[in-house]
Design a protein that fits this description.
Blueprint (H helix, E strand, L loop, with lengths): L1 H5 L3 H9 L13 E6 L10 H9 L2 E4 L5 H4 L7 E4 L7 H18 L2 E6 L9 H10 L4 E4 L4 H8 L13 E5 L13 H7 L2 E5 L5 H10 L7 E6 L7 E6 L3 H8 L5 E5 L6 H4 L13
Parallel strand pairs: 1-4, 1-5, 2-3, 2-4, 6-7
Antiparallel strand pairs: 7-10, 8-9, 8-10
Length: about 280
């Protein structure tokens, strides 16, 4: 690959190195934005395509939840921008970030928008992609492993299991008006899904639990919280809908965490024995 890179103009080399797809807008002066999923934290869970992109990027604009181990994969030549640090109000951030992406794509071949987990799972990737397409900027999504599956997995909790759960719902616990649709139907979720995986749910958990109990879930329903899942500092808290709020207070358990509710949580004790090990990544 390096020989091919040397024999062609820099910007074309990079695009070919990271993708065989045609650009949406094949303008010679505009680069391409890649909405890249960083996965949940363990650098071993970054996709091969994603790692190649980070090694060839001219600019990387990354979110606060992207782990330091993933940031180490970025080419030392790349300009790196922490979008999290630019955070004022959330809506302002989104507009600013999109403008920055458009501006950077004007002068750089490979612009990576690096997001935790998967860009299209509670990651605003869909909104950014629409804005970039509307602005005529070539854009491509590169999926990542979402924390809602990987964090439970690293804690020995499969989100489905033939003996325990044949359905799973991924839902936001952040119901602020204007952020996500505020009308999460907890009643329908409690009745229709055997596993419930909640993103951004720690702060609002007392309220969510009372809605799930009203909908018919039992007080002894198992629940687990996984903080910084798949990272070396992963923390786990396991209890029931009856006990978990006291446990959170007693242990001062904090976000960001994934919440898993359902019988699959009972597998934690047995399957955590086969917990994955974080492998060091060779960046050379
Ligand atoms: C804005 S959402 C982004 C989700 C991300 N796009 C994904 O696919 O994982 C942020 C929430 O994802 C969850 N999250 C992200 N990374 C996590 C991790 N390593 N461990 C546990 N939860 C995580 C937390 O619930 C956090 O509040």
């Amino acid at each position: 690959m390096s020989q091919q890179l040397q024999s062609q103009p820099q910007s074309r080399n990079k695009e070919q190195a990271v993708s065989n797809k045609e650009t949406i807008n094949p303008s010679s002066s505009t680069g391409k934005v890649y909405l890249l999923g960083a996965g949940p934290g363990d650098p071993g869970l970054m996709t091969v395509k994603g790692k190649t992109l980070l090694e060839h990027a001219d600019v990387v604009i990354y979110d606060a939840l992207v782990s330091p181990a993933i940031l180490q994969m970025i080419s030392p030549q790349a300009e790196t921008i922490n979008a999290g640090k630019r955070r004022g109000r959330h809506s302002k951030l989104q507009k600013e970030t999109t403008e920055l992406l458009i501006q950077k794509a004007e002068n750089n071949a490979v612009v990576v928008r690096l997001k935790g987990g998967d860009p299209f799972v509670f990651g605003r990737g869909g909104e950014e992609m629409s804005d970039l397409i509307a602005a005529g900027v070539p854009v491509e999504v590169v999926p990542g492993i979402t924390s809602g599956i990987a964090a439970p997995a690293y804690a020995g909790i499969p989100v489905t299991h033939r003996g325990y759960s044949s359905s799973v719902t991924f839902v936001t616990g952040h119901e602020a008006v204007g952020k996500y649709r505020p009308d999460v139907n907890w009643d329908a979720i409690a009745k229709g899904s055997e596993t419930i995986v909640i993103y951004m749910g720690v702060y609002n958990l007392p309220n969510i639990i009372s809605k799930l109990l009203e909908a018919g879930l039992k007080l002894d329903t198992p629940i687990a919280l996984i903080r910084w899942g798949t990272r070396s500092d992963q923390e786990e808290l396991v209890g029931t809908l009856d006990t978990i709020i006291n446990q959170i207070e007693a242990t001062e358990f904090k976000a960001p965490a994934i919440v898993i509710i359902g019988r699959v949580v009972d597998l934690h004790a047995q399957l955590a024995l086969g917990r994955p090990i974080m492998l060091p990544i060779n960046n050379s």
